[in-house]
From TrEMBL, chain A:
Organism phylogeny: Bacteria, Pseudomonadati, Pseudomonadota, Gammaproteobacteria, Oceanospirillales
All residue ranges annotated as the ABC transporter domain in the record: 4-217
Highest taxon, organism lineage: Bacteria
GO cellular component terms, A-Z: plasma membrane
Name of the molecule in the record: Phosphonate transport system ATP-binding protein
PROSITE patterns: ABC_TRANSPORTER_2 (PS50893)
TrEMBL record, chain B:
Keyword annotations from UniProtKB, A to Z: Cell membrane, Membrane, Transmembrane, Transmembrane helix, Transport
GO CC terms, sorted: plasma membrane
InterPro entries: MetI-like_sf (IPR035906)
Annotated TM spans: 58-82, 102-125, 211-232, 239-256, 297-319, 428-448, 460-478
Protein known as: Phosphonate transport system permease protein
Superkingdom, taxonomy of origin: Bacteria
Localization: Cell membrane
Record carries keyword Membrane: yes
Length: 217, 495
C-alpha cells in the first residue's frame, strides 16, 4: 500500500468553494479524528478521501449508513465481504447463506449486541441498531483503511464506546468524523480540526484536552 | 371550477366523445338480442361441468401458455431493464409493446403455424417490452446509497444483486404477479386465433350453442383469477415454470420453408416482389392508405375516444362500491364492500376481447359491444384502484354523507389520480380497440385480419406498423397531458 496523501484538494458546491485547497498525509497505523462544526466540510473531506483511496482498500461507513432495508442484518454485514467471493457464491448466499459465513459473522454481531437481530430485515431496526449493523459491515470488510462519518452518533454511553473499540481494533488506520470530542480524543492518535473548509488544527490527541477543541465549535 | 385545467381537459374529452357518438355505428342487428343474453345468464347459473376433460384441458393450456410466456417475457425484460437507458433499447421496447399480443400471434401463425411457439412468443415479446420499461423504473427508484459502500473490486453481478435488486425485489414481485394475471387473460384470448387455450373452447362452445359449457368455462376462469393469490405462491412458482413448457400441447410441426418464405417473399410489398420498383410502390401505398389505413385509423380513434369517456364515467359511478366511506365499516358495511369487490373483480377479470366477443354474438356487429366491453373491463380496473385510493383519505367526523360526500369530499380529491389512471389506460384502450377489429368492427384490426385472410401479408404488416405508431403517439400525448396537468405517476401506480 502506497502512502496516503491528499495534495491541494478542493471541493466546490454550486460554484462556491466549500473546501480547500488543503493537504493532508495519513501515516499507516494512524487514527485521525475529524472534528469541527456541522457544515465545516468534514463529510466533504471524507468523500474526497473515499474517491482517492477507494482502490487502496478503504471501507466506508457513511452517515446515511447505506444499508439495504429489504435484506437481513446478516446479508447487510456479508456485503462487506462481497469482493472476496466469486459472484456465484454471493448469489447462492443471497438465497441461502453458507454455514461458515454465518459462523464468521455471528461473533461480530454478538460483540456489538445485535446477534438476536441476525435474520431481521435491516429496515425494521432502530437507528442505533442500524448504526451497529453498518459498523459490523465495515469491520467484516477487513479493508486497510476505515473512513467513517459519525459512526456512533445514534449510540449512547457504553454502546458508543463498545462500537468505537471494535472499529478501531479492526482498523489501525482510520479517519473518523466525530462530534463527540471526548470519544474522539480517547480513540484516536491525531485530531484534525476543520473550520470554514480549511485545516484549523492538526495535533496529536495526547497533547489535547476537550477544552482545546471547543474553539472549533 | 370551470377555470381549472383539469376540468376543462375532461370536458374537452366528453365533448369529443359525444361528437364521436354521432359518427359511430351503434346499431343492434341481432334478431333477439335479449333472449340470447338470457340464455347466456342461464348458462352461468346452471353451468355444465360434465365435460371434465374438455374443461380441464382448456384450463391447463391457458395456464401453461401464460406461465411460459410471462416467464420468458419477465426474464428478457429484466435483462433489457439493465440496459434500458440506451435509446435503441427504449425505442424497440416501445415498439414491441405497442403491438398487441393477438397481432403478434397473427404474425407468428403465418410462419410457425399452430405450433406452441406461436402462442408463447405472442405473449413473451410484448410482455418483455412492458417488463423492461417498468422494471427499469422500479430499479431507478431504489436508494443509490448502498452502492457507495460496496467494497472496491466487487463483481457487477454481486453488486447489482445485493443493492439494486434486493431493494427493488418486493416491488418487482408485486408487479410480476399483477402481470401474471394479465398473462392469464392474454393466454385465454389467444384461443380466439387458434391456440388451444380457453378462448378456443369458448368460441367452439358458442358456435354450437352450448351455453352451459360457456358458463362453466367462464366460471372456471373467474375462479382461477380470483384464487390466484392462493395457488400462485412464490415457493410453488419454480415448479409451475418447470412444468408449464411440457403442458403446452403439441400443436402442428413448424415448416421451416414457411419461415424463410415469410421473410423473403410474403412481407415484401407486392410491387417490389413483382419488380415494379418504387414507381409501383407509391400507388400501392396510396391505395392501402386511402382504402384501409385511413378508414381504420378513423374508426379506431372514434371508438377509442367513446370507450375512454365511457370507462371514465363508469369508474366514477363504481368506485363508491369499494370505498368504505360509502359502504361503512361495520359488519353490514364490510359485507357490502365485499360484494362490491366481487363485482369489480368479475369486471376486470373478463378480458375485453372475450367480453366483446360474447356481446357481439348477442347484439350483432357494431361499435356498441366494443364500447361496452372496453368500458366494463377498464372501468373495473380503475374503479378498483380509485376505491382503494379513497380508503386512504380520512374525512373529518362531521363530513357530509351520501351524494354530498361523493360530490364535495371524495371525488374532487380523487380526480387527479383518476385522470392519471385513465390517461395511462388510454393507450391500452386504443391497442384493444384496434384488436377488436378482428371480431368484425371496422377498426385497424379488421383490415389487418382481412389482409391476412386474403394472404396479403405485405399489407397486413404495413397496417400493423401503422397501429403501433398510433399507439406510441397516444402514449406520448397521454404523458404530455399528465405532465401538463401535473398528475403524479410512478411505476407502481400503473394498473
Amino acid at each position: 500500500m502506497t502512502s496516503l496523501a491528499l495534495t491541494d484538494v478542493v471541493a466546490n458546491y454550486g460554484g462556491a468553494r466549500v473546501l480547500g485547497p488543503l493537504n493532508l498525509t495519513l501515516a499507516h497505523g494512524e487514527r485521525v479524528a475529524l472534528v469541527g462544526r456541522s457544515g465545516a466540510g468534514k463529510s466533504t473531506l471524507l468523500s474526497i478521501m473515499q474517491q482517492h483511496w477507494q482502490a487502496s482498500g478503504a471501507a466506508l461507513m457513511p452517515q446515511e449508513l447505506g444499508l439495504v432495508p429489504s435484506l437481513s442484518v446478516f446479508h447487510n454485514v456479508y456485503m462487506g465481504g462481497l469482493a472476496r467471493r466469486p459472484s456465484w457464491y454471493n448469489l447462492a448466499s443471497l438465497v441461502r447463506p453458507f454455514r461458515r459465513d454465518i459462523d464468521a459473522i455471528t461473533p461480530l454481531l454478538e460483540r456489538l449486541g445485535i446477534a438476536d437481530k441476525c435474520w431481521a430485515a435491516a429496515g425494521e431496526l432502530s437507528g442505533g441498531q442500524s448504526q451497529r449493523v453498518a459498523a459490523a459491515r465495515a469491520i467484516y470488510q477487513q479493508g486497510d483503511l476505515l473512513l467513517a462519518d459519525e459512526p456512533v452518533s445514534a449510540l449512547d454511553g457504553p454502546l458508543a464506546e463498545l462500537v468505537m473499540a471494535a472499529l478501531t481494533e479492526a482498523y489501525p488506520t482510520a479517519v473518523l468524523a466525530m462530534h463527540d470530542v471526548e470519544l474522539a480524543l480517547r480513540f484516536t492518535d491525531r485530531v484534525v480540526g476543520i473550520a470554514d473548509g480549511a485545516i484549523a488544527l492538526d495535533e496529536p490527541s495526547r497533547r489535547l484536552s476537550v477544552q482545546d477543541l471547543l474553539v472549533l465549535y | 371550477m370551470w377555470r381549472s385545467a383539469t376540468v376543462r381537459t375532461s370536458l374537452g374529452f366528453v365533448v369529443l366523445a359525444i361528437a364521436c357518438v354521432f359518427v359511430a355505428d351503434f346499431e343492434i342487428s341481432a334478431h333477439a338480442p335479449w333472449a340470447e343474453l338470457g340464455r347466456l345468464f342461464l348458462g352461468l347459473v346452471q353451468p355444465d361441468f360434465e365435460a371434465v376433460d374438455y374443461l380441464g384441458e382448456a384450463i391447463v393450456r391457458t395456464l401453461a401458455f401464460a406461465f411460459v410466456g410471462v416467464g420468458l417475457g419477465a426474464a428478457a425484460g429484466l435483462l433489457l431493464a439493465l440496459v434500458f437507458r440506451h435509446l435503441v433499447v427504449r425505442t424497440s421496447c416501445a415498439f414491441v409493446r405497442a403491438i398487441h399480443e393477438l397481432f403478434w400471434a397473427l404474425i407468428f401463425l403465418q410462419f410457425f403455424g399452430l405450433h406452441p411457439l406461436t402462442g408463447v412468443l405472442a405473449i413473451a415479446i410484448p410482455y418483455a417490452g412492458i417488463f423492461a420499461k417498468v422494471y427499469a423504473e422500479i430499479l431507478d427508484e431504489s436508494d443509490p446509497s448502498p452502492s457507495k459502500v460496496i467494497p472496491h473490486g466487487t463483481g457487477l453481478v454481486s453488486a447489482l444483486a445485493y443493492t439494486r435488486f434486493s431493494q427493488a425485489w418486493p416491488h418487482l414481485v408485486t408487479y410480476t404477479a399483477y402481470r401474471l394475471e394479465c398473462g392469464l387473460r392474454s393466454s385465454a384470448v389467444l384461443g380466439f386465433v387458434g391456440m388451444p387455450t380457453l378462448g378456443f373452447y369458448l368460441e367452439s362452445s358458442f358456435a354450437q350453442g352450448q351455453y352451459a359449457t360457456v358458463g362453466a368455462l367462464l366460471l372456471l376462469f373467474y375462479a382461477l383469477i380470483a384464487t390466484l393469490r392462493l395457488w400462485a405462491r412464490p415457493r410453488l412458482l419454480p415448479f409451475y415454470l418447470l412444468a408449464a413448457p411440457f403442458l403446452l400441447g403439441d400443436g402442428l410441426p413448424i415448416r421451416w420453408q414457411n419461415v424463410s418464405r415469410f421473410f423473403t417473399e410474403d412481407i415484401v410489398p407486392e410491387p417490389l416482389r413483382q419488380g415494379e420498383g418504387l414507381a409501383g410502390l407509391v400507388p400501392w401505398l396510396g391505395d392501402l392508405l386511402a382504402n384501409e389505413a385511413l378508414p381504420g385509423i378513423w374508426n379506431t380513434l372514434v371508438l377509442t375516444q367513446i370507450a375512454l369517456v365511457a370507462t371514465g364515467l363508469l369508474t366514477l359511478a363504481l368506485y363508491p362500491l369499494v370505498s368504505h366511506h360509502f359502504t361503512g365499516r361495520h359488519f353490514t358495511g364490510r359485507v357490502r364492500g365485499a360484494l362490491g369487490h366481487g363485482v369489480l373483480v368479475v369486471m376486470r377479470s373478463t378480458p375485453e376481447y372475450l367480453l366483446a366477443f360474447i356481446l357481439l354474438q348477442l347484439w350483432g356487429p357494431s361499435m356498441l359491444p366494443a364500447v361496452v366491453a372496453l368500458a366494463i373491463h377498464n372501468g373495473g380496473i380503475i374503479g378498483h384502484l380509485i376505491g382503494r385510493r379513497s380508503n386512504e383519505v380520512s374525512l373529518r367526523p362531521d363530513a357530509p354523507r351520501g351524494i354530498e360526500r361523493y360530490a364535495f369530499e371524495l371525488t374532487p380529491r380523487l380526480y387527479g389520480p383518476f385522470l392519471a389512471f385513465l390517461f395511462y389506460r388510454w393507450e391500452i384502450i386504443m391497442r384493444e380497440t384496434a384488436i377488436l377489429g378482428i371480431l368484425g368492427i371496422a377498426t385497424l384490426g379488421f383490415y389487418v385480419d382481412s389482409a391476412i385472410q386474403e394472404i396479403r401479408f405485405d399489407r397486413a404488416m404495413v397496417l400493423i406498423v401503422i397501429t403501433a405508431l398510433l399507439n406510441i403517439g397516444v402514449d406520448i400525448l397521454a404523458r404530455r397531458l399528465r405532465n401538463r396537468l401535473r398528475l403524479r405517476h410512478t411505476a407502481q401506480s400503473e394498473p
